[in-house]
User: Fold these one by one.
Assistant:
Number 1:
Amino acid sequence: MTNVDVLTYAGNLANLNGVVEEHGERYEFFKADIANADQMDALRTEHRFYAVLNFAAESHVDRSINDPLNFIHTNVIGTSVLLDCARRHGVQRFIQISTDEVYGSLGRAGKFTEQSLLDPSSPYSASKASADLLAIAAHKTYGQEVLVTRCSNNYGPYQFPEKLIPLMIIKALRDEPLPVYGDGMNVRDWIHVNDHCAAIVAALFEGKPGNVYNFGGDGEMVNIDLVKMILDQLGKPHSLISFVPDRLGHDRRYAIDSSFAQRELNWKPRCNLKEGLEETIHWYVDNPSWWQPLLERTGRY
């Protein structure tokens, strides 16, 4: 297994502690930009790969609003480079990891299915939708074994502190105001990172080329309720909540129907949100040695 990462501000080699010891020569790290065709070709020349799993992405919506070009570079051009390189070097399978945000916003009822129209609301989600279309086109045009997976919001250990759940946990631990957009009534469906990884493995070996698979955690929750759960778990007062002006183009509700993936891939989410959130909170409480250096190094929060 080869891990390719350009190590942007969110990259952290400490996430790989123990991986080499566990996997030995079966694992290697390659620092490179997926949008650099020469670097990707050099890597494929050195190795023969069965599959490419494209997790790489600029993923923070707020930053995409302020600076879209980085998102186009990595998410669109990078995906195109990886697809072309995989085809030239005979890589059998390509898994494009995407997001439910490409579908836009739901009303009060219903869930996203694989047939839902793409209706992205931010530069981030537009860049991911573009990458998805490139991946599907590679299957239709060249016959590449490409699959697209779209998941709901991930949570769990080792998540960069700019994301909602670790941001709220760390600010609460520091007794700092917890910023909540708008009225806090936006709804997200949460999936534990372990369930998401299991779903991707199932898609890799059981998925049908050309298909899109939606992965949800059956964990719909209103944002303000999620923040209050975190505060309650940490024994902190709700008065730490600070409502701030809403994000531009902020989608109101996401919800994933993952029944097709469950049937086709023999997969289902196993971690319920309440238990998974408690475990995640404990992890951040117990591992300040992981997140404190990140905050100091990046200045991002």
Number 2:
Amino acid sequence: MSAYFQDKVVIVTGASSGIGLETVLAFARAGARVVLAARTQTALQGVVDAHPDLRDRLRVVPADVTKNEDVRLLVATTIAQLGRVDIFINNAGVGMRADIADAPVDDARSLMEVNVFGPLRCIQAVLPYMRQQGTGQIVNIGSVLSVVVAPRNGVYCASKFALLAMTDALRMELHGTGIEVISVLPAYTETPFFERMYRYGNAARMSPFKGQHPAQVARAILRGCARHKRQVVLTVSSRIAIYLRRLSPRLLDFIVRQTSQRALKAESKT
């Protein structure tokens, strides 16, 4: 895969931690030139400083995906400094754990700004350059919850359902242009995402099991781009859940409901 990514220009949002950080490192080690985007410059610079062997392949451009001007400058700066954008990875995201009946509307709106309108801004900013190039890849990082719903995650699920719908529509709209659109649907991943999500008195993590390492997701993103995939689903259990949603949604509801209830009982004991 290194030959495929050699000197390609990659932008990764949400690049300072978790899946974004590991994706930055994976692409840089594969030979790409990677632009790190997140809200905080110090966090991004910390990534560069922690990996001096990759310093020549990493560029820091602070950007908040909820701000039009930040996104415009992110893409314009990349073009000015590196000449092109080959791959844009929409990874920035925020979670929420709350019953639908109790989810504060203002917080839900803020979540949608990051998870749905953030990628939309980025896509609209980078597409003119990719159209001019006649090539490019847009990678949207969703979740298994882009397809399967879970109690107390309804608002987050809604945002990821919306992102997947936007991804699939964009793929059809760009057919024949040379620009590919890839959706990546990770399952439970061990990252700081859970500590930073909107939650209201609930534990950060409901599962007693450790999730997959974000480096696994990063490698899957790399393979998805190299193999020109339409969609990347990481785990067997996720594939089974997606299949069950189509074949037997009532059975899937029962399984997810039982799993959630066990997690709630475990949470109440801690």
Number 3:
Amino acid sequence: MQGKVVLVTGGAKRVGAAICRRLHAAGAQIAVHYRSSDQEALALQKELNKLRAKSAAVFQADLLDLHTLPQLVHKVIRHFGQLDVLVNNASSFYATPLADIDERQWQDLLGTNLKAPLFLAQAAADELRRRHGCIVNIVDIHAERPMHGHLLYSTAKAGLVALTKGLAQEMAPQVRVNAIAPGVIVWPENETWADQEQRRKIVAHTLLKREGEPDDIARTVQFLIADSPYITGQIIAVDGGRSVNL
């Protein structure tokens, strides 16, 4: 990771922050993207730069605004002089039962989970080819087996799986593109998932009978960037075996 510049979308907190910390500890320079989590982003930037001066910077952008995506990539390149890795981690997540779906939800869930990764990859393509870099997308085990009541989210993540494989074809041989499908890592931040009995039932379906940690995802991101030169177009489930035991 020494000398690499990594852009992590949604990098200010939760899994995104764990990815930033692990890649930074391995020697990378980190571009932390955020939309509205400015306090968390600035605190993470301060934390990382205290460990290694000028090694992290923050970049605000609304990923639903297509015009800002090339600007985001160009700002990162202008600041650090290069871009080696794009980690598409930012995501919207909430329930959308069929009867309740509207266009705003479509634009939000498909926008953050599928549209933004596509157009960020497009904006970064030339630089990533020049640097022989890579892309890591964060998908979901429910891309393959949709989550009940979460129709749009599951559809968007299924699209991101297809996009991962398509980009691997389009950007080869210079750029590798892979994805990680998390299982139970960090519970969503809404009341629907606060029920402890519901959580217990979900964890019971994992073969390892426990929740994962954000660093489980971060370690896999590091592996796909630094230790897998012959892997591209693949989806790695990091889910304690839940996807084979649903």
Number 4:
Amino acid sequence: MAYDITKFSMTALMRPAFDAGVALARLDERIARSPVGQGWIERTHFADACASLWIDGELVHLEDLVLHDATRDIRTPTHELTIARDVLRTRQRIAAQLPSWALSAEGIRTLRQTQAWPGASDGSDSTAVHSRVEPTEAVEREGEGDDGDDAENLPGVDYAAIDAVLARSEAAIEDAKRPGRVGANRSAEKDPLVYDLDWDEDARLKEWRDVLRQAQDLPAVLQAIIALDAWNELSVLQHAPWLGRLLAASILREAGITTGAHLTAINLGLKTIPVDRRRHRDRETRLLAIAHGLIAAAEIGLKEHDRLVLARTLMERKLEGRRTSSRLPELVELVMAKPLVSAGMVAKTLDVTPQAARRIVLELGLREMTGRGRFRAWGII
């Protein structure tokens, strides 16, 4: 289980790592000075979350993640979609914090608590509640012929069952808060059908941190590459392999390779690398695959940025001659910030009716992305 960074040569890795650093720095400079920089960052969060699930062997559609994050689901969320939202929220949380926060002891402890499958506590906080139970949110479904605002007494909805689920959730939270429920006795309470009881996440995390200390004198890109490969090889967390890729991106951000709220979309880059290279038995092959994935992430980011700049220019031409009270400029900002927008999202953001939202969308000339007659979503892709 040991991961020794002295047992492989870095000669072949130096050039790709240097190229990756240059490409990422060029992308970061472009985003920092761009009028669509913030929109690019927001869209990248969603795309990278979907790519993360793809790398782990699951498929989550971008439109489903966007609507789920906006509580505009058109179907019951799947477990994979829930994990994708965890990845999305974790990316956004890391980007909103100081660059050094994610890799700190407090940062890692907090991030481990936000897993879709909770892990053991990391630190002395014995009162942390790891089962994330969120309050139910009212989902407003809007589409063609379904524009009513009255959500009460919906036919076919078993409100008694919903109340029972809420009661059980509250009871579970209270039970988890009781003294003695976490800590030394926690491993005995884990369900063996869900957890490998011999999987010591704390020991694996400690070993991963030792790898980071061994690589701390290397260039930042090499540190990120080695940290990601070590995370995968040590299998630190049972149910959150995706967290290692976000921590690797945090290494680049802490070192200044990327700045501001820009978090490298490592998953998008790795998605372009064949799986037999990413999971090769030879360590050098895996490290080269990660380096090439970073280069691909920078190239994808530059192409996406140029596409957004062109799309914004075309949409701004349609704003010429509009009244100052027009809602189209607000819609342009919303469309640039989200990969997809639904009638409900537009109505909520612009404070208009769903019918008016669809009319404004048609005026802007957005492309309908779902191919449905109801619960439609539009975008510029």
